[in-house]
Structures are given as C-alpha cells and as structure tokens.
UniProtKB/TrEMBL annotation:
One of its GO terms (molecular function) is ATP binding. Gene3D superfamilies: P-loop containing nucleotide triphosphate hydrolases (3.40.50.300). The keyword Ligase does not apply. Keywords: ATP-binding, Nucleotide-binding, Transport. It comes from the Bacteria. InterPro entries: AAA+_ATPase (IPR003593), ABC_transp_ATP-bind (IPR050319), ABC_transporter-like_ATP-bd (IPR003439), ABC_transporter-like_CS (IPR017871), Oligopep_ABC_C (IPR013563), P-loop_NTPase (IPR027417). SUPFAM superfamilies: P-loop containing nucleoside triphosphate hydrolases. Residues 334-355 are annotated as: Disordered. Belongs to the ABC transporter superfamily. It comes from Streptomyces rameus. The keyword ATP-binding applies. This is Dipeptide ABC transporter ATP-binding protein. Residues 345-355 have a biased composition (Basic and acidic residues).
Amino acid sequence: MAEPILEVTGLVKHYPLTRGVLFKKQIGSVKAVDGVDFTLGRGETLGVVGESGCGKSTVAKLLCSLERPTAGAIRFKGEDITRLSGKALKAVRRNIQMVFQDPYTSLNPRMTVGDIVGEPYEIHPEVAPRGDRRRRVQELLDVVGLDPEYVNRYPHQFSGGQRQRIGIARGLALRPEIIVADEPVSALDVSVQAQVINLMARLQSEFDLSYVFIAHDLSIVRHISDRVGVMYLGRIVEIGRDAEIYDHPTHPYTQALLSAVPVPDPEARERRERIILTGDVPSPADIPSGCRFRTRCWKAQRRCAQEVPALAVPEAFRGTGGPAAHASACHFAEEAAPVTPAAPEEPRPDGDGPG
Ligand SMILES: Nc1ncnc2c1ncn2[C@@H]1O[C@H](COP(=O)(O)OP(=O)(O)O)[C@@H](O)[C@H]1O
Ligand code: SF4
Ligand SMILES: [Mg+2]
C-alpha cells in the first residue's frame, strides 16, 4: 500500500443520552462510532459503506475535526491530530476537507456561488489574497466543469448535479490533501451520479488527493474505491481491496449487502442467492454483546454472543495469500457459496444427442 496519509485507531464517538429538562441526567450513551480502525494511503480512495445510522457521517466529522472523539486517535502524516487546538487545529482542518451529502441544503441559498466557493478564504486568508479571490473562484468553477461566469448566481439557479459541483469546488478551495465525501451522490439522480463520480476521479489525479468516499450502497463506490470498508453499528466489520470485498467477501453482513446490489446481467441475477436480512438494526444505545451483527446473522452461534470478533484476517485464510485473506470481524468467516452456475443442459432421454 502507498505511504499512509491517515491512520485511524480505536476511534470512538459516544453521545450522552439524557433525560430531564432542568436537571439533565445521563441514562446511557449513543455509540455512534464504537471502535473504528483503518489506514488511508496517499492518493488512495477508501470507500466506506453501511446502512443509514451506522455512524458514517460521525466518522466523517471526526476525520475533519468537526467533532472531537470520545477515544482513539487520528494520525495525519504521522501526527496525532485528535487533541489539537488553536493554530495547529486550523492548519489541519485546511488539509482535510469535507464534501457534504445534500447539495440542496448544504449551500447557503442567500449567498452567491462566488461567495460560497470563496468562503474558505475568509477563514484562511493566507491561501488567497483578497484581490486574487475572484480569479481563484472562477478557476475552481472551471475545474469542476461549471461556467466561470456563473459566480454571481445563486444556488437555486442550478441543478442538483451542478450544486454538488459547487460543493466540490468549495472543498477544493484550500487545496486540501484529503477530501472526505459524505454520500456526495446519494441525493442525485442515477444519471447524474456517474458524472459526479467521474469528476471526482479526475480531480483526484489532478490535485493529488486522497479520498474517503462514503456511501450507503456498495454499488456506488465500486468504481472509485481502491479499498472498501463495510460498517455496521459503529464499527468496520470487513475491509479489503475492492476485488476482495466485491468478489470474495467473508463477512455475512457484506455478503447480505452484496446480494442486494443490482446485477445488470439477467442470467447472473437468476442464479445468485438473495440474502434477505431479517430484524431491525439494533439501537446504537443498546449494542448486542459479542458480535454486534449476531441478532441478524443466520450463522450466529453461542460463541457469537460471548466473544467480540476482532477485525483481522480470519484464521482459515491466514497465510493463503488469496483474495479471502483480508480483515473480517467474524468468528465463522467463510467465502460465500459461489454463485450457482447455470444448470447443465439435460441430456435428452431418447439419446438423440448432438452430432
Ligand atoms: N449529535 C448527536 N447526538 C446524538 N446522537 C447522534 C448525534 N449524531 C449522530 N447521532 C446518532 O449516531 C448514530 C450514527 O449517526 P450517523 O453518523 O449520522 O450515521 P450515518 O451517517 O451512517 O447515517 C445514529 O443513531 C444517530 O442518530
Ligand atoms: S461472528 Fe457470528 S454472528 Fe457475527 S457475523 Fe460471524 S457468524 Fe455471524
Ligand atoms: Mg450520514
């Protein structure tokens, strides 16, 4: 793997759960992020996927220092950035920028596009002197495929895809090294999603960026990710190179998510086994003991309730060097039954074979 630019270890964010208005009493905690580990290589894209509520946005905010973790560390180029303040914090924030999910609500409707894209320069005037800002903003609009003459327009004059381009231009303004994109295409029409993803892929090489690309659907991150991490209830349950995750998943949750991904080939669609997950996602305020996926896992056994499975290469695959040898937090990790091949043609009973 490339030299790490971001190393995340034991990242935790718990929100206190309180009761009472005047005398707030803590009655528990929402374990939004509950022990996340991963490394992002320079120039790499890590896809992070999981159902709504599993803690993806909280991870994004922690990475961008918009929230402080309850525990754990985030290292940016080797330096722990989780306890910084003042100037040092400001400098790090400049380098790790976020692109938000919803282009309809994340842009201030009363600001012009020029002001929106140039706003980061107000906080970091050292990046662009005042007299140079308009030109910089126009350059950024051009880079994301918008007409530089649009600087004086307002967000409502743009389509969803164009607004997300504005959000991306703003994310680029400070020339960050890392962009954390929190479901950047989830609110867009399917036809527009690919355009925005292609734009982000192009910008990655042009600006030498490393990406954390968040999505709730595995199919969206496939083409842009070098590696993919699958989250469930505040943790990564499986992580590996994209071919390892898409073609050789060993965690039951990933296998279930993949079985629901649309397959264009009708024959393959017929043959594959659809895994329907039963039961609801448990509350992050009340996480099951042992393996947190066990209440929905069809393979769960007694051990699963007693022992937390570590996110590591499962013993069965250790030393094999094959694509199943990637980290998976399951006591009984195994490769999914391969897609059942089409039934062989039945020989005809009358022996009237070919030839
Ligand atoms: N500020 C907060 N206070 C309390 N609970 C929160 C807060 N932010 C998020 N949560 C809870 O943490 C969990 C994870 O949320 P989030 O990170 O937004 O998930 P995702 O982005 O995967 O949908 C959810 O149950 C959510 O309700
Ligand atoms: S550890 Fe047990 S409950 Fe968890 S995913 Fe594996 S088999 Fe299922
Ligand atoms: Mg979210």
